[in-house]
Amino acid sequence: MKRVALFADVQNLYYTVRQVHGCHLDYAALWADVARRGQIVEAYAYAIERGDPRQQQFQQILRNLGFDVKLKPFILRADGSAKGDWDVGITIDVLDAAPRVDEVVLASGDGDFAILLDKVRDSFGVATTVYGVAELTAQALVRATDRFVPIEGELLLRH
């Protein structure tokens, strides 16, 4: 059975799914869809810690599904802007996992990851899949992956 590592960019997914679909990603449906492609041997969800009880409940749901939830503190800058970027952490974890798996699945629309997917394929011979909101996923990322899965339909959590 194919060994799969799953990496979920929670902030990117939250904002892109909400903007286009007006709802949330169903992480259980994402997990089930990825699990149909092979055995998920590693899974990480990257989020920002704001100390909000609802967010903590959501993070526990992710853990219950099987994700290792990685948290970074929410930083509000003096100018009012916020910082909470996991790009470097995701990149390091993907490069670390690539030699141990047959496929890397990235759930994000961030075009900065295109070069990472090229490296994973070229250096490790690992297949890549990207899950992203089609309208807001960078074309560079779509071009860089072996398979693009649009987040729509059954992957959405509609209340």
Description:
With about 160 residues, the protein is of the alpha/beta class. It is about 40% helix and about 30% strand. Strands 4-3-1-7-8-9 form a six-stranded parallel sheet, with helices on both faces. A two-stranded antiparallel ribbon has the order 2-10. A two-stranded antiparallel sheet has the order 5-6. Strand 7, helix 5 and strand 8 form a beta-alpha-beta unit.
Layout of secondary structure:
Elements: E1 3-9, H1 10-21, E2 24-25, H2 27-35, E3 39-49, H3 53-65, E4 68-73, E5 75-76, E6 82-83, H4 87-97, E7 103-107, H5 114-124, E8 127-132, H6 139-144, E9 147-150, E10 156-157
Parallel strand pairs: 1-3, 1-7, 3-4, 7-8, 8-9
Antiparallel strand pairs: 2-10, 5-6
Keywords:
159 residues; 6 helices; two-stranded antiparallel sheet; alpha/beta
Largest sheet: 6 strands, parallel
* Separate helix tally: 6
Total strand count, please? Answer: 10
Query: What is the N-to-C order of secondary-structure elements (H for helix, E for strand)?
Result: EHEHEHEEEHEHEHEE
Content of β-strand: 25-35%
Q: Which structural class matches the secondary elements?
A: alpha/beta
Shape: globular
* Average pLDDT rating: 94
Radius of gyration: 15 Å
Q: Helical percent range?
A: 25-40%
Strand order of the largest sheet: 4-3-1-7-8-9
Oligomer: single chain
- Cα separation of the termini: 35 Å
Write a brief caption for the model.
The protein has 6 helices and 10 strands; from the N terminus they run E-H-E-H-E-H-E-E-E-H-E-H-E-H-E-E. The protein has 159 residues and is α/β, with parallel strands linked by helices.
